[in-house]
Design a protein that fits this description.
Length: about 450
């Protein structure tokens, strides 16, 4: 009987094991088929995409009740009037507060905007911070405090965890932990009114205008301007590169060249373009401009478009690779080819569509603030958007529904997948990991996150 029982038990065990294996196999096959179907079907998990131009309206004018604000342009809306959501938010609730918004950097669906208060002329700034704006919800979702009196200027993202911000008043660059939204280190000793910053090949390049305002004499003194090179891994300064007077805008070509625009002293010292080899950190070319240049922007063909002087307005074009002018000061683009009455002066930013976006602020507060779009092939005016007071800083964002961004840090990465996995099996409304909104966290939610990686 014991042998018979043992045989029956073994047989039963085999059946159970086979059923368990069959169940696991069928489950795996089901999940595999589901995943295959999901990834094969392009319509699954599709979300609305918004192509936006984000505009900082930088004018603050307490006497006119004007506060710095932000406008958003829907580039997919054909009607130019309906496309603009003007002054979506203001950076201060108090009319008399002179809060400056001086920079704009976008990462995913989050905009990072350095701001500070300037109570009276000559007084140190206060309330210094970086506002974080969710472009999908159009609301401020966070704030990174910066040292009082630092006057943060411009931001560059180093990686998913870290950004640098230049601080002009304290001659520093602050290192910010993005997830924790706090300053972790301050780089000092090598800066003089640091303003512009760009990132290329593991290094950050900071422009130092090196000026000092003397209120008693009522004039500005200019010292030796420079570009400071920072190792973005160790947060240490590698080199200081002397450049002509008053270095301002700094950008790079995405490969090997850093481009610095200097503007001189607005009197007898004029501007220059300086090209720096990002491998050797040596200057390869210095171009005398013979005038005080305005804003500049680089297109995908490495052609630098630049505003000319106020005496001779218009757009100049310099070929960075050939190191030669395509259009010099004697051959500027003075007007739109199809609308000579619309100004081509103002801030320059190339869009992802290859067109040139020109901000034209009305610093007098008269409401004549525009963003104009130029087709650079024939210099024609494509669109004109009416923006808010002092519309001067512009950047682009592609906003996709970001329920997959579980931790709301502006990007979808493996960390979101890890966080969502902790909620597997949970049911109910409002669960952060319930990406598809069916009130249960399961494999479908993980797949949607995986698709967005």
């Amino acid at each position: 009987m014991d042998k018979v029982f043992a045989a029956q038990l073994a047989s039963a065990d085999k059946k159970v094991s086979w059923r368990h294996f069959s169940f696991k196999l069928s489950t795996c096959l089901f999940i595999s088929a589901l995943l295959f179907t999901i990834f094969l079907n392009p319509s699954f998990g599709q979300t609305e995409v918004q192509d936006l131009a984000v505009v900082i309206n930088a004018l603050t004018h307490p006497d006119l009740g004007i506060r710095a604000s932000l406008s958003i342009i829907d580039l997919m809306e054909p009607n130019e009037n309906r496309a603009v959501d003007n002054e979506v938010l203001h950076f201060s609730n108090r009319v008399l507060q002179r809060r400056r918004a001086v920079g704009l950097s976008i990462r995913g669906h989050l905009a990072y905007i350095p701001t500070f208060n300037l109570p009276v002329t000559g007084a140190p700034s206060d309330g210094d911070s970086i506002f974080i704006l969710n472009l999908e919800d159009r609301e401020i979702v966070g704030e990174i405090p910066i040292q009082e009196g630092a006057t943060p200027q411009e931001i560059v993202f180093i990686n998913d965890e870290k950004l640098y911000v230049t601080c002009a008043a304290t001659d520093e660059v602050h290192v910010v932990d993005i997830p924790n939204r706090n300053v972790t280190e301050i780089i000092t000793g090598f800066f003089n009114k640091p303003t512009g910053i760009t990132f290329l090949n593991g290094k950050a390049y900071v422009s130092n205008p090196a000026w000092e305002w003397d209120p008693a004499a009522g004039k500005t003194t200019y010292y030796q301007s420079s570009v400071t090179v920072i190792d973005a891994v160790t947060d240490t300064v590698l080199k200081s590169i002397p450049v002509p007077t008053n270095a301002s805008e700094i950008l790079n070509d995405g490969e090997s060249t850093v481009i610095v625009k200097t503007v001189g002293n607005y009197n007898d010292v004029l501007g220059h373009l300086v090209l720096i080899d990002a491998t050797t950190d040596e200057i390869t070319e210095t171009v005398e401009l013979g005038f005080t240049p305005g804003s500049a922007a680089l297109n995908s063909q490495k052609q630098l478009y630049m505003q000319g002087s106020w005496q001779n307005p218009g757009l100049l074009i310099y070929d960075i690779v050939a190191q030669d002018w395509i259009r010099d000061e004697d051959d500027t683009i003075a007007n739109f080819s199809n609308d000579a009455d619309a100004s081509v002066s103002g801030g320059l930013t190339f869009g992802p569509d290859g067109n040139l976006y020109i901000t034209q602020p009305d610093w007098g507060g008269g409401g004549q603030d525009y963003v104009r779009v130029m087709d650079v092939i024939d210099a024609s005016l494509l669109k004109t958007y009416r923006a808010g007071p002092g519309a001067s800083i512009l950047a682009f964002a592609q906003v996709i529904s970001r329920r997959e961004d579980i931790n709301n840090d502006g990007i979808v990465n493996i960390l979101d997948l890890v966080i969502a996995a902790r909620f597997l099996g949970d049911q109910g409304a409002g669960i952060v990991a319930d990406v598809n909104g069916d009130e249960v966290v399961n494999i479908l939610d993980l797949v949607l996150i995986g698709q967005a990686l």
